[in-house]
Model the fold of this input.
Amino acid sequence: MRIISFSADGIKSAAEKGFFDWLKEQDADFICVQDLQCSEYDLQDSIFFPADYNAYFFDDIDGKANGVAIYCRQMPKAIMTGLGFTDFDMEGRYIQADYENLSVACLLAPSAETNNPKQQGRKDDFYALLASHLQKVRNKRREFIICGNWHIAPSAADVQDTAKNSATSGFLPEERQWMDELLVSGYVDAFREINSDR
Done:
C-alpha cells in the first residue's frame, strides 16, 4: 500500500506548480492533502479530480482556510468528516475513509503564532481532545493510518536551529511531550520507521 501525505498550502497553488502532474507518476493508493485553502465548489477544473481516484473533500465553513481531502483508488465503505469536536469540526480539519478493517485519515491540526497565548491555548485544547479520541479508537478492531500536518516538530532533527525554535509554537516542550506520549501509547510514526535517518 502506498500513501502520500501532502500539506498543500493552497491546493490551487499546488496544482499550478505541478502537484497533480507529479502525482500521476506516484502510483499511490491514497493521497491525503491538508490545507486546501478553498472549498470543493471552487475546484471546477478536472485536474482536481484525477480519473483513477475517488475524491472526497471537507472544507472550512468559510471555504477560505484549512480544508482536507482524501483521494482513494478503491471506493471506501464510508467517509467520515470531523471528529465531534464542537469548536473545531467546522474548520475542515479531518476526513476519514473507512474500509473493512482499515481507516485512512487526513488531519490538519491548528497552528499557533508564537507569543499568542489565545491561539496556543486553542491548539492545546485541540490536542487534548485528539489524544482522548485516539485512545478510544485504539480499542476498535481495525487499523488506523492517520496522515497529516500536525504542526509539531517532534524532534531536534525536524528543525534547523533548536535553540532558536525552543520557544516556538510547534516545537514547545509540552507539544513534543504530547507526541512522545502518543507514540508510547502504541501509535507508530510510520515515516520515521521507514526513514530512520531523520
In short: DSSP finds six helices and eight strands in the chain. Strands lie at 3-7, 30-34, 54-58, 68-72, 78-81, 94-98, 102-108, 143-149. The helical segments are 11-16, 19-24, 117-137, 162-165, 173-184, 190-194.
